[in-house]
Amino acid sequence: MKLKKNPNNPILKPHPTNYWENLVVCNPGVWFENGKFTMLYRAAGDDEQHLIRMGRAESTDGIHFNRCSDEPAFEPSTDGPDKGGIEDPRIVKFGEEFYVTYAYRPHYPGQYWKFEHDVILLPDVGADAPAVLKQNIANSGLAVTKDFKDWMRLGRITDTNLDDRDVILFPEKINGKYAMLHRPKQWIGEKYGCEQPSIWIRFSEDLMVWNEPSTLLISGRKGTWEEKVGGSTPPLKTPEGWLIIYHGVENGGKGYYRVGVALLDLNDPTKVIARATDFVMEPEHDYEIDGPYQGCVFPTGNVIVDDTLYVYYGAADKYIGLATCKIDDVLDYLKKYRL
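RE: above sequence
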């Protein structure tokens, strides 16, 4: 089974006259409510610092999106820990408030695609600077809003000394606790039970306090399309279990980004009850191959409307694409891989 890519792809492109998004728009979080799709997307201009911001767009059909403003919807702080850029929003809603997890850095990364793999710019700081600043480590933060216009930054929800991204909240409490997927880059080796960065799950009674031990959830498979893995979109509750859409990278994390699917137990999401061995989406088209990252489909938003699953993804770190399928099709497909 493969997700069907929309013929209008890419559905959102860089805006040539907006300085903050004239080079990149990708990796969007998406919410659907009252007949409207709201998209919060990663954006960057052609500045050498590659300072990343977020824009907002809306749609009534989930395909044709209109930008809400020529100005960013959410920007890095001027003097805080996310001063270096904010990226990759994932959206959930509790009550009347939207909670958005996002990755950030204390210092801008620079045009990383011109550097060696995993190399970014570092700030000029003294020997006593903490690791998060000295190494420009990516942390993850939590912000809250009611309208995607007025924001409150609640702060960091990962450890400062860990490159811990792909932090995604479950959309409801499970057994009285909040749940989070995350991908700590340094948690590899015999001690952690995985050879490459993997998907972990943890729980908490407070959205800002994540002190309970994490459980290894999904790790890579050596010699396959998914040697390195990470969470992609917020989990979706279905009658068969929590549907997880995740990304996998070949060649130890240096190759193409593809998309996998799995199911978690509804009452105990530390249990993977189904996981497909094949990917459901891969880079195929020019807009997914020709960009800052050559060969990347990276989902960050998904919604179910009626019987259709909409998956929104970054393409080549430059564009936004949409892929769909019937939700029953992906659930039937996963039945073949019940564990």
